[in-house]
Design goal:
57 residues; 72% helix; 0% strand; elongated
Length: 57
C-alpha cells in the first residue's frame, strides 16, 4: 500500500465515522484513534525513506 492509499483509507474511515456531519464524543474518540494510527504509518514511511528504502538503485 502506498502513502496515497494509506491517506485515502484514513479519510474514508473518518468520513464513515462522521456520516451525519456532526461529531459526538464517541466519534471524536474514533477519529483520534484513526489519527494516531495514521501518524504511526506516516512516521514509519518517513523513516523508511530516510533509510533509502524507496530510492532508485
Amino acid at each position: 500500500m502506498d502513502s496515497h492509499q494509506v491517506l485515502q483509507k484514513a479519510v474514508e474511515k473518518v468520513g464513515a465515522i462522521t456520516d451525519d456531519g456532526e461529531v459526538d464524543q464517541s466519534e471524536a474518540r474514533k477519529i483520534r484513534t484513526q489519527w494516531q494510527r495514521l501518524k504511526r504509518y506516516g512516521e514509519a514511511f518517513v523513516c523508511a525513506c530516510e533509510r533509502g528504502m524507496f530510492a532508485e538503485t
